[in-house]
Design goal:
- The protein has a domain of 114 residues: Chitinase A, domain 3 (Roll), CATH 3.10.50.
- A hairpin with a 5-residue loop joins strand 3 and strand 4.
- The chain is of the alpha+beta class.
- The strands form two sheets. Strands 3, 4, 5, 6, 7, 8 and 9 form a seven-stranded antiparallel β-sheet that branches. A two-stranded antiparallel ribbon has the order 1-2.
- The chain has seven helices and nine strands.
- Keywords: Isomerase, Rotamase, Signal.
Length: 340
């Protein structure tokens, strides 16, 4: 798990010793004796009308993916952050302006192709998908198309739209060795396009990081004012909801805990499906301190600032850069470690 130290990263990508999700093995199916034949129509390079989504460029909503759970069991609603979330920190106008500025960069050599070009005809073929070679070929085409679709969806978030029919025409022409642009123009066009996408990605990342910092600061300030909240020597905010008992927890001890990790906006990025056992010294310092603050048999909420969490890099699919981390921890059992 990302919460484990790097030297123990072989234990898995998650903090939990047992994964929360299990990949189900694919069922091996023998090829049908008589697979239905599939006919690819000639000149069928046009994308169906559903594709014009690229023309209208519908806004694609950004969602922070949860690393291991979809519904937060713990509501982070004690601190109101709606005002910060809705503040126009990352304005789309800035991205649009950046896109227009970079798009204005002219390619050094203009294409010598005619104003209107026609793609090479796609030959009609019939295939049955009853051989491994045919399935591999078809699956490769599907995979390539989905990769392009994902890229184009991301580009629409940056206010860049590409006509899917022309993208498809370029693929067909390349396979037919009938490309309508010379190689220098292809390279120069893609160089300018890549520069545009990189600049817009950077601007978008900076805006999202600023928004994350502001949400975290708002949550931190409000939580700090709540009754019973204290600040540890290491700089964490914590509130003990159930007092602990017994000796203090040591680095070599093995603890059995229930844990929920969330963000200031309420997104849960980690939740134990069942109690897990972990050696205290094997987890990141901030969470190690959090478990010690919670104590044997205790329950606590711990708030970790970005500089003690994952900083500018973030972690997991659900922890963005500069994220303030909120952990609700319950220490169920402590086993004394050896060599203390």
């Amino acid at each position: 798990m990302a919460f484990l130290n790097k030297k123990r990263s072989a234990l898995g990508a998650l903090l939990l010793a047992a994964p929360l999700f299990y990949a189900q093995a694919e069922e091996a199916s023998a090829p049908a004796a008589e697979a239905p034949q599939v006919k690819q129509e000639a000149n069928s390079t046009a994308v169906e009308p559903a594709a014009p989504a690229a023309e209208t460029a519908p806004a694609v909503e950004d969602k922070a993916p949860a690393a291991s759970i979809t519904e937060p069991a713990v509501k982070v609603d004690e601190v109101k952050t709606d005002e910060v979330k809705s503040a126009p920190v990352a304005k789309e106008a800035a991205l649009v302006k950046e896109a227009e500025k970079v798009s204005a960069v002219a390619v050094k050599e203009e294409t010598k192709a005619d104003p209107e070009v026609k793609t090479s005809p796609l030959p009609a073929i019939t295939f049955s998908l009853n051989s491994e070679e045919q399935r591999r070929a078809y699956a490769s085409g599907v995979t390539l198309a989905r990769y392009l679709q994902e890229n184009m969806a991301h580009q629409r978030k940056l206010h860049i739209t590409l006509d899917p029919n022309i993208v498809l025409a370029g693929i067909v022409d390349a396979f037919a060795n009938d490309v309508k642009m010379d190689e220098d123009t292809v390279r120069q066009t893609m160089a300018v396009f890549d520069e545009q996408v990189n600049l817009l990605n950077k601007a978008k990342a900076e805006q999202e990081a600023q928004r994350e910092r502001e949400m975290g600061q708002a949550f931190w300030s409000a939580f700090e004012q709540q009754d019973g909240v204290k600040k540890s020597r290491t700089g964490l905010l914590y509130r003990v909801d159930q007092k602990s008992s017994g000796a203090a927890i040591g680095d070599r001890d093995i603890v059995e805990v229930e844990l929920t990790g969330s963000l200031p906006n309420g997104t849960v990025f980690e939740k134990t499906a069942q109690p897990i056992r972990v050696k205290v010294e094997d987890i990141i310092p901030a969470l190690r301190s959090a478990i010690k603050l919670t104590g044997r048999g205790g329950e606590a909420r711990i708030v970790i600032p970005p500089e003690q969490g994952y900083g500018a890099k973030g972690a997991l699919p659900g922890i963005p850069p500069y994220a303030t981390l909120i952990f609700d921890i319950k220490v169920l059992k402590v086993t004394a470690g050896k060599g203390k």
